[in-house]
Amino acid sequence: MPTTYLEFEKPLTDIDKRLDELRRSPARSEEEQAELLVLAAQRQQLESDIYGALVPGQRVQLSRHTDRPYTLDYIERLCSEFVELHGDRNFFDDQAIVGGLARFRGQPVVVVGHQRGRTTAEKIKRNFGMPKPEGYRKALRLFQLAERFRRPVITFIDTQGAYPGLDAEERGQAEAIARNIREMARLRTPIIVVVIGEGGSGGALALGVGDRVLMQENACYSVITPEGCAAILYGERTPERVAWAAEALKITAPDLLALGVIDGIIPEPPGGAHRYPEAAIAAVGDALAEQLHAVNVLAPEELLAQRYVKFRRMGEQGIRAE
């Protein structure tokens, strides 16, 4: 079980604690065994009730949960023969983005993704998952390598956004993001994008141009964080304003599917990917396999034509609905 409970998950805390005690008991009595079965059923129902009524602000919290699987967790469990490649051959190796060569269910691929950290040391090493220009240039190098050897690209998005520091701006942050978007749009190899956590602003878009864009059920994808939106519009980040912004921004997977921004939603186990990571990772693997099978048969010219039309039409569904 995760060590961190979000506020709306707190009703599960006492039940989980008691269940853990009962399961650790080397010799349970009949009464304890009966209690275990009753509590397990109660917990399942409570969990279903909680996660069946999530609001956008709560999904944002889930997308940021520290126990949620990160890019390297997916690579480790879904890929074999992974060889990580480092550096942009210009300045340094930005570890907020990881990537390299691998095999996904036997097929050679190139995988790239944002990588956050869990411990304080890891967060500092990964710059809290916020890449600098060198991270995006490393990603571009890998995209071009994939095109050269005709390998599909899989990207995992999980960042609040690109690093906004002075040093990143001095070295061309905006240019690096814009170049990635342009080059991904015309890359002559299949690209599958999966938003596995928080997808924020251009920092996410720099890995987000693909033939298929998928989102996990409790991920979010937005031009700005709800906190940033509330601060700009209202000059304050109160819980009420942040919750309103999360609703208004339409950043959840169902909203973005309705708008045509994404192509599919990957269901998470009841309780979320942070609570059942193995099941969540397996679901992502199945979705990737399905989408790769669909795009692998397309010739490069057809792939590019469909990609162009896909992004030109983005948002039309929402406009028609209004």
Give the SSE map:
Layout: H1 13-24, H2 30-51, H3 56-63, H4 71-78, E1 79-84, E2 97-104, E3 107-114, H5 120-125, H6 133-148, E4 153-159, H7 166-170, H8 173-185, E5 191-200, H9 201-205, E6 212-216, E7 220-222, H10 226-234, H11 239-248, H12 253-259, E8 264-266, H13 277-296, H14 300-312, H15 316-321
Parallel strand pairs: 3-4, 4-5, 5-6, 5-7, 6-8
Antiparallel strand pairs: 1-2, 2-3
Helix pairs in contact: 1-2, 4-13, 6-8, 10-11
CATH architecture of the largest domain: Alpha-Beta Complex
Unreliable spans: none
Q: What spatial form do the alpha-carbon principal axes imply?
A: globular
The portion of residues forming beta strands comes to 15-25%
Counting H and I runs of at least 4 residues, what is the number of helices? 15
Going by helix content, strand content and strand pairing, the class is alpha/beta
